[in-house]
Design brief:
- This protein is mainly beta.
- It has two helices and eleven strands, in the order βββββββββββαα.
- The chain is elongated.
- Bound molecules: zinc ion (ZN) (2 copies).
Amino acid sequence: MQRYAPSMTTIDLRRLHLRQGEVRRERLDVELEPFVLGGQRYEPGPAVFPVELEISQASGATVFVMALETHLTGPCMRCLAFAEVEPRGSAREFHDPDAPPADELRSDYVAADHLDVSAWARDVIALELPEQILCRPDCAGLCPSCGKDLNAEPHEHVERELDPRWAALGDLRDQL
Ligand SMILES: [Zn+2]
Ligand SMILES: [Zn+2]
């Protein structure tokens, strides 16, 4: 199956024409590519999700407030069973086209008078992701010795393979 690159959602800042104090609310559809974390793939479902934007004009800068909520599914980072997360978050950006480069009033997500809503939304989601995506908070994971699922089959291995150093000591003792 061929995959197409997701479309980028942007806002053309030249078309906003906001007056000072005016607030505009917009709901935009953003297409999200899967996240790859710790070598595992987490798919957004649905791939296109709504982002709420509030745009206002303050003195000297346009203020963007984003709020979003999405859903990702993929393997549990401990046992590889199905896991899902629902990152939700909000963020704020300021942009003044006349601010010098690297100034905090110059948003990193604005290029050529367009706010890159897709890139910003992706970063907001990335910040909201838990350190570990798990099937359940107390997932016991896979057994490091035999690889079996410790949730389904809780067990310990009592017999351990003899450490080669102990084996050498054993040989030594036999020789004494
Ligand atoms: Zn798990
Ligand atoms: Zn085991």
